[in-house]
Amino acid sequence: MQNNPRISKENINRFLCESCGANMGFDAASGGLACPYCGHRQSVAQTGGTITEKDFYTFLRPDSERLQPMAVNAMQVSCETCGATVTFVPPETARNCDFCGGKIVAQPKSADPLVAPEGVLPFSVTAQVASTALKGWINSRWFAPGNLKVLAQPDKVGSVYIPYWTFDAETDSQYTGERGEYYYDTEYFEENGEQKSRQVRHTNWFGKSGAVSRHFDDLYIPATKSLLPEYVKHLSWKFNELVPYEPAYLAGHKAQTYQVSLEEGFELFKQSATEIIYNDVRGDIGGDEQRVHNVNTDYSNITFKHLLLPVYAGAYRYNNKVFQIVVNGRTGEVQGERPYSWLKIGCLTIVIIALLLIILAVFGASR
Ligand SMILES: [Zn+2]
Ligand SMILES: [Zn+2]
Fold first, then answer.
1. For residue range 204-259, what is the model confidence (pLDDT) as tens digits?
2. I want to staple 231 with a disulfide (CB 3.0 to 4.6 A). Which of 51, 91, 172, 335 is the partner?
């Protein structure tokens, strides 16, 4: 088994600034590597070519040679509080967990090999812009506790790539069911001594069996369990803007290790595919109503990709509850939960009552 040519020894040095030797990071503003010290810029060399689909069954066999770390010198660390594992390239570190805000005490170790990412949406929103978006979001929330504002500082949210799977497959499904066709009868009845009629709908059911097939192209399955599902649902991505993964995109950022395995991802894909196939079956049965009794689906030509998608994530504790905030690293859109500060609400209530008392006192005295 050949190693991925993209992950070679030179890749380590590629992150060093040609001009001053410092570590460069992937810069969302320029879309390339930038040196934080001298400002030198470098584009990300595309060494891997195109984004290619991988054969699903080849990767299901327990053959660890097919697995590789995200970069040669990649390190990983796991959060003891929530269990999330992130990969990064030194000198990047992970002191706090971006997902739960917990302190990371474990020492980083060499990154475990995994199914290498195939495609990435690089960060295009800078930490500054994400922070401004977050400030706007917080300021538009009434009664938000003051410590929420701390999160809006650019260094308080981490830039982290979230893992996704995407699957392609051909499906052939045999089904049995029934087609319902409506017909109407005229019914006669008496009302207040008058003879009346009405149309009543009935359904005739006919047995129907058949076959449908479909080509699934890029059904996306989030492979993270660290972000709230409703946030993940609302994260919108332009998948046509994916570029082939290069370790340089990791420089200065973190990437979360997938928490949904390839096999689990495929099961989730089948669940989504089944819903779509049921709709196809209903369309094939036709008529006014359908009953689906049985669908048997064969999957073939199954391929997949592992993708990394960029978010700024942060979490904070308030009254012993963890609140999470996520900013889309491509659009700047903010998803977040916010607590209500009962202290602020209480203070405002007291102010209002005091004002009422003053008004009453003034009016009482003037009488
Ligand atoms: Zn430099
Ligand atoms: Zn955590």
1. 999 999 999 999 999 999 999 999 889 998 999 999 999 999 999 999 999 999 99
2. 335
Domain boundaries, the chain: 55-176+213-336
Which ligand sits closest to the CA of 38?
1
How many whole angstroms from its chain centre is CA 213?
29
The gap from C-alpha 229 to its chain's centroid, in whole angstroms, comes to: 8
User: Alpha helix locations (H) across the chain?
Assistant: 10-14, 56-60, 127-139, 229-234, 262-285, 342-366
CA 338 to ligand 2 center in whole angstroms: 19
Tell me which ligand sits closest to the C-alpha of residue 79.
2
Instruction: Compute the Cα dihedral for 147, 135, 91, 75 and give only its sign.
Output: positive
Question: Cβ–Cβ contacts within 10 Å for residue 173, how many?
Answer: 22
pLDDT digits (tens, 9 = 90+) for 141-187: 766 666 666 665 656 789 999 999 999 999 999 999 999 999 999 99
Looking at all shown ligands, the one closest to residue 100's CA atom is 2
The tokens describing 114, both together, are: 């995994």
How many residues does this entry show for the chain? 367
**Nearest Cα to 252, choosing from 310, 196, 318?**
310
The H or E element spanning position 179 is strand 158-191
Are the beta carbons of 316 and 326 closer than 8 angstroms? Answer: no
User: How many angstroms is it from 69 CA to the middle of ligand 2?
Assistant: 21
CB 221 within 8 A of CB 165: yes
pTM (2 d.p.):
0.80
